[in-house]
């Protein structure tokens, strides 16, 4: 009996995982290593899970990593674990929902490091696991995952250091937020077309879409709004992150040589972390891989793209 489509897809994913595991064992050559210990990478939500692993891998490649966390106690402990492993990691408290916290962090970063070269927006929340699809915390999910990411990008762009290879922004996102996926896509065709058109895409349009969703949640009408049906609030927040990534790639494309900033997003997969209730099937080390790869790409003329397992996927 032949294999069904799900079994074949599972086999392809497993093969790709094995390929990436092999790629991770191949060290960067000297001519590929554009970074040094002076290269500064900021990772939000770095105290656990994917954020902790991204911090560890970047530091293991020889960069200086600023690990941030909303909770100072757990952030300090996470940084200490990495420091005890001989890695160059510093900690600073950061709440991406608090404009004052972001300003304090930006001022400290500028005073102590002169800015940054890499920003990894990993801080995010999700309250649903398994088959749950509660929207009780929709406002908080959208505020953290989308508006928090947006606030960090806006605050960090002026601090990104000039370089010949370009600064990098990596947004941790999800395929659950894909516009045109076969499953879980936005049912409102007009909105889908508006968000798909990168030339007419605007911050106002993205903000209005997520604000409409939150308003419908609070009015109890969201189920008829054509929103994704799986982990709806999380999916909408990541849909917005994906759209904002494409928008910012267009906005930043006008920057002159030597001051380029490249921005991309990626899906880490269903990772075994607290966010998934430890129900994921991918270890954090693998979930972090594509984010680290994007941050360190030697020839980073790639911007405004969406990746998974080191491969570009459609929005």
TrEMBL record:
Signal peptide limits: none
Annotated EC: 1.1.1.-
SUPFAM superfamilies noted in UniProt: NAD(P)-binding Rossmann-fold domains (SSF51735)
Pfam families linked: adh_short
GO cellular component, one term: membrane
Entry superkingdom: Eukaryota
Keyword Oxidoreductase annotated: yes
One GO molecular-function entry: oxidoreductase activity, acting on the CH-OH group of donors, NAD or NADP as acceptor
InterPro entries per the UniProt record, alphabetical: CBR1-like, NAD(P)-bd_dom_sf, SDR_fam
Keyword field: NADP, Oxidoreductase
UniProt-listed PANTHER family: (+)-NEOMENTHOL DEHYDROGENASE, SHORT-CHAIN DEHYDROGENASE_REDUCTASE
Family: Belongs to the short-chain dehydrogenases/reductases (SDR) family.
Protein name (record): Short-chain dehydrogenase/reductase
Organism: Parasponia andersonii (Sponia andersonii)
């Amino acid at each position: 009996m032949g294999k069904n489509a799900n079994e074949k897809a599972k086999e392809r994913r497993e093969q790709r995982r094995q390929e990436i595991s092999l790629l991770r064992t191949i060290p960067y050559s000297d001519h590929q290593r554009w970074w040094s210990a002076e290269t500064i990478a900021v990772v939000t939500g770095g105290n656990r899970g994917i954020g902790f692993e991204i911090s560890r891998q970047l530091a293991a490649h020889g960069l200086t990593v600023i690990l941030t966390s909303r909770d100072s106690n757990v952030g300090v402990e996470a940084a200490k674990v990495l420091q005890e492993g001989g890695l160059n990691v510093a900690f600073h408290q950061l709440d991406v929902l608090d404009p004052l916290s972001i300003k304090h962090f930006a001022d400290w970063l500028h005073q102590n490091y002169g800015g940054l070269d890499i920003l990894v927006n990993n801080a995010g929340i999700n309250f649903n696991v398994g088959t749950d699809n509660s929207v009780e915390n929709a406002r908080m999910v959208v505020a953290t995952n989308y508006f928090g990411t947006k606030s960090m990008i806006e605050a960090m762009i002026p601090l990104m250091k000039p370089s010949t290879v370009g600064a990098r922004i990596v947004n941790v996102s999800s395929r659950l937020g894909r516009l045109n996926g076969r499953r879980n896509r936005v049912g409102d065709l007009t909105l889908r077309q508006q968000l798909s058109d990168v030339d007419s895409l605007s911050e106002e349009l993205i903000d209005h879409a997520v604000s409409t969703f939150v308003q419908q949640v609070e009015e109890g009408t969201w189920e008829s709004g054509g929103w994704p049906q799986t982990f709806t609030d999380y999916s909408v927040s990541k849909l917005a992150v994906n759209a904002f990534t494409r928008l910012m790639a267009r906005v930043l494309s006008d920057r002159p040589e030597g001051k380029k900033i490249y921005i991309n997003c990626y899906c880490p997969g269903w990772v075994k972390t607290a966010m998934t209730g430890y129900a994921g099937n991918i270890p954090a080390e693998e979930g972090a891989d594509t984010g680290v790869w994007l941050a360190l790409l030697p020839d980073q003329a790639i911007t405004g793209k969406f990746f998974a397992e080191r491969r570009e996927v459609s929005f």
